[in-house]
Amino acid sequence: MVGAVIFDLDGVIVDTETPEYLAWKTLYARHGWEFPLDLWLQNIGRVDSPFDALEPFRRPGSPLSPEEALALWREIRAALEPGYLTPLPGVVRLVEALRARGLPRAVASSSRTARVHGLLAALRLDDKFDAVACGDEVAHAKPWPDVYLLAAQRVGARPTACVALEDSVNGLRAAKAAGMRCIAVPSALTRRLDFSPADLVVESLCEVTPDVIAAVASG
Which pTM was predicted? Predict the structure, then answer.
């Protein structure tokens, strides 16, 4: 039986990753630089940022300080984000179908609590989930399993009975480390990555139903 279905937020419920990427690309382009997408993909799904996007601004002679560059990136992202603030295809239908079956639903995100709840409220999904677990509530965010284990705890489900929905390799690793089954829903940006450890890979959540989740849970 499925104990709970646990959704990643960024890239699964809403596309926040594209405006983040486009903001970096725009900022770099203003200085004649190419933004390295392949390196930036290492950061998707985690908060410790193994790739330092501000590194060029730390060099001697940089046109901006790192603080100025980060502020400008946030300004560009804020201008882009409203165009992406809508639930991704299949999200609302799947959440409602799970609720109709009485299956617990949770969110497990590496993002900070205020941002997670703010996004869910903006999407009018804040009352659709039974629990939310965020990156700043645990010792280690994804790719460590902590946030998934916290989400399972909050809905009273055994981790091994949960199915996670993820768009990033870091998130997939976190779910697997927590002992969960995982359905990968790669985004336009993450499709080039290796999702072979996932139990199922789909094009979008439009392909996912409670029956599909039950089949994944049963192995």
Answer: 0.92
